Amino acid sequence: MPNLTLIDAVRMALDEELARDPRVFITGEDVGVRGGVFRATQGLYDKYGASRVVDSPLAELSIVAIGIGAALAELRPICEIQFSDFIHPAFNQIVNEAAKFYYRSNGQWRVPLVIRAPYGGGISGGLYHSQSVEAFFAHVPGLKIVVPSTPYDAKGLLKSAVRDPNPVLFFEPKKGYRSIKGDVPTDDYTVPIGPARVARAGRDLSVFAYGMMAHYAAQAAEKVAREDGLDVEVIDLRTLLPLDKTSILESVKKTSKALIVYEDNKTLGYGAEVAALIVDEGFEYLDAPVKRLAGADVPGVPFSHPMQEYFMPNPDKIAAAIRDLAAY
């Protein structure tokens, strides 16, 4: 069982799915000869050829539109959006077309489409290479939204996404592409879309996060365990739509305190829905206010490294928020 980075696990999943199913193909900007800007598809062009790993024009609308058409023709397209910041020209195709085909056709047409995109800050990418866009799409019935935080889940969830009969947006935390490592089986396995993962069991307080923030939350939980004796439970949501409400409420029932961490802007970010769920359906379990730790409400993640660090949650900030909430 090799110890792989997050990006290696993504590449392994793509390779295995291309080999498993001849209907699967990849398209996107620079995915072919170059192997992608983050090298997620490195080596796949040489292995599978130009008809299976297809370089596209610089036109995200057409990348997704081609994916929808191919999916309707019973292929299994994987569309890469080079950065999640670039997904906005394809918003209409995703929200008005891909998400609604099954409903509008009364179940006659499915769109087995995967859209991969690296998201989030942490690489000094500035305004147009650091955005978190998951909250826009998590509002849309008909889509599934998946955000892995471990290499094991990245491979297993991506394989499940490729095999899903309906559209899946697969957002990958690019800050963790090479900094997050873990054991990944080389055999064929899947991780089901939907259920959250208990990244760390605990009894004093629950932290809910996804992507890079789930990784940081686990680090923060270990830090406060060593330094403060706090036993923190970390729930990696990993699927944002559909949301695993049962796991969230069970954790809050056990610990009675909830902290939600996400790196998007705080106001109307995805964590607000988790907070609303807890207050609406788990209020009787609470011994303290539901708290959120998120990015600042500014137009974008700053390019300056010190300002970027000021914007983004990190293990130390999460640990401080845990201590504050535990003191209630």
Topology:
Layout: E1 3-5, H1 6-20, E2 24-28, H2 44-48, E3 53-55, H3 60-72, E4 76-80, H4 91-98, H5 101-104, E5 114-119, H6 134-138, E6 144-146, H7 151-163, E7 168-173, E8 181-183, E9 197-200, E10 205-209, H8 212-228, E11 232-236, E12 239-241, H9 245-255, E13 258-265, H10 270-282, E14 291-295, H11 305-311, H12 315-326
Parallel strand pairs: 2-3, 2-4, 4-5, 5-7, 6-7, 10-11, 10-13, 13-14
Antiparallel strand pairs: 1-8, 6-12, 9-11
Architecture overview:
The protein is of the alpha/beta class and 328 residues long. The chain has 12 helices and 14 strands. It has helices at 6-20, 44-48, 60-72, 91-98, 101-104, 134-138, 151-163, 212-228, 245-255, 270-282, 305-311, 315-326, and strands spanning 3-5, 24-28, 53-55, 76-80, 114-119, 144-146, 168-173, 181-183, 197-200, 205-209, 232-236, 239-241, 258-265, 291-295. Strand 6 (144-146), helix 7 (151-163) and strand 7 (168-173) form a beta-alpha-beta unit. Helix 3 (60-72) packs parallel to helix 4 (91-98). The longest helix is centred in the last third of the chain and has 17 residues, at 212-228. The chain is globular.
Number of strands: 14
- CATH architecture name of the largest domain: 3-Layer(aba) Sandwich
**Radius of gyration, in angstroms, nearest whole number:** 19 Å
What is the H/E string? EHEHEHEHHEHEHEEEEHEEHEHEHH
Question: What's the total helix number?
Answer: 12
The profile of the biggest β sheet is: 7 strands, mixed
Which strand order does the major sheet show? 3-2-4-5-7-6-12
- Enumerate the spans where pLDDT stays under 50 for 5 or more consecutive residues: none
